[in-house]
Amino acid sequence: MSHSPRAIHFGAGSIGRGFIAPLLSNSGYHVVLTDVDKDLIQTINEEKSYGVHILDTNTDTNEVQQVENVTGVISTTNDIIREMAHPDLKLVTTAVGLPILDKIAPTIAKGIQARRKAGRGTINIIACENAIGATAQLEEKVRAQLHDAADAEYVDQHVGFANCSVDRIAPPFDPEEHDADSSLDVGVEEFFEWIVDGVALKGSKPGALDVPVEGMSLTDDLPAYNERKLFTLNAGHAITAYLGYLKHLPTVDASIADPDIAAVVRGALHEEAGAALCRKHSSIFDSKKHDAYIDKILARFANAAVRDEVERVGRQPLRKLGRGDRLVGPARMCVEHDIPVHHLATGIAAALLYRNDEDEQSVEMCKAIEEKGLGAYVGELTGFEEGSDVHKRIVEEYERLQKTYS
């Protein structure tokens, strides 16, 4: 008697239910969704299916994809350890948010111990978080929980930890507004991308999963795709949101519809970040194909059915202004490849002007500008020396935007 391959997914929120679980289920996996929300898990076990609504303003009626063959387990119980030791388990994925990896690592470690003691075979673990190297961080936390040499050896032989890049917008979704059949129903944009480091996968097929996942792309150069996503989707999203915030526009689609904002975003992605990416990764990214990728990203921003609020996208501005992150990162890459930085500087300046009293990072940023002075703080934050072309441009754009929108 044959059994369905099993996958455990940590995090039964909108990304888990709307992005990862559907791909696994459609590929023949029985999906075990695990979460701390007892009511949510109970509903999953009662209904065992739900709908994924594809949000698209280009169609009169949104497509609804049905997800079957799912069950739920509360992640704080020993049930998840038993699931980890299941003989048919092939894959473990997460979408819990980077800070929560600390909390699930001990559970995964106990599950690995249970698998070794039960003599189970190979599994692969992929952290589908919106961060570069999330799986590597999870692996480090899991290994720190394994003190037995036999467990460490088992991990080396039978557990693959593969980093990935994930991309799909799953905005807040009210099932009642969409006449959904279940409270489990979620809404997502049509576009998605799941690119996994195939080199890190373990199994009978080198560089691949034993049970392939339709919709998952494997690569042997994941860092290039990580940068493409961060410096295109995330950069454009942030610039659109911060400029939209300054103009008191509520959503990303309303913001990108503004001609002035669209011009800045297009310039930042096509002329600056995109040009730098294609120079750095010339063997992977063709400029024409990358321009088409950018245009697809811009079309996603314009999708009014997604209704992504600028305040949500703008949250945690200091994280987004990190030196390797979505705004400063591509600007630094431009400098490395002798590409003038103009539009990205406008985006950085707009982020520095984000004011939200309920956002700790916004409050911290505002205080630092007042105490240290704009020029000194921009240099400290971005790493661009005072007097450099990019530094001067950021300061000038900050003052121009402040004067225009104060």
Automatic annotation (TrEMBL):
Catalytic activity: D-mannitol 1-phosphate + NAD(+) = beta-D-fructose 6-phosphate + NADH + H(+)
Domain of life: Eukaryota
Pfam families hit by this protein: Mannitol_dh (PF01232), Mannitol_dh_C (PF08125)
GO annotation (BP), single: mannitol catabolic process
Listed GO MF terms: mannitol-1-phosphate 5-dehydrogenase activity
Keywords, comma-separated and alphabetical: NAD, Oxidoreductase
Gene Ontology CC annotation, any one: cytosol
Group of enzyme by EC: oxidoreductase
Mannitol dehydrogenase C-terminal domain segment(s): 221-400
Assigned EC number: 1.1.1.17
UniProt cross-references to InterPro entries, sorted A to Z: 6-PGluconate_DH-like_C_sf (IPR008927), 6PGD_dom2 (IPR013328), Mannitol_1_phos_5_DH (IPR023028), Mannitol_DH (IPR000669), Mannitol_DH_C (IPR013118), Mannitol_DH_CS (IPR023027), Mannitol_DH_N (IPR013131), NAD(P)-bd_dom_sf (IPR036291)
Positions of the Mannitol dehydrogenase N-terminal domain: 6-206
Quaternary data: Monomer.
Family: Belongs to the mannitol dehydrogenase family.
This protein's name: Mannitol-1-phosphate 5-dehydrogenase
Annotated source species: Roridomyces roridus
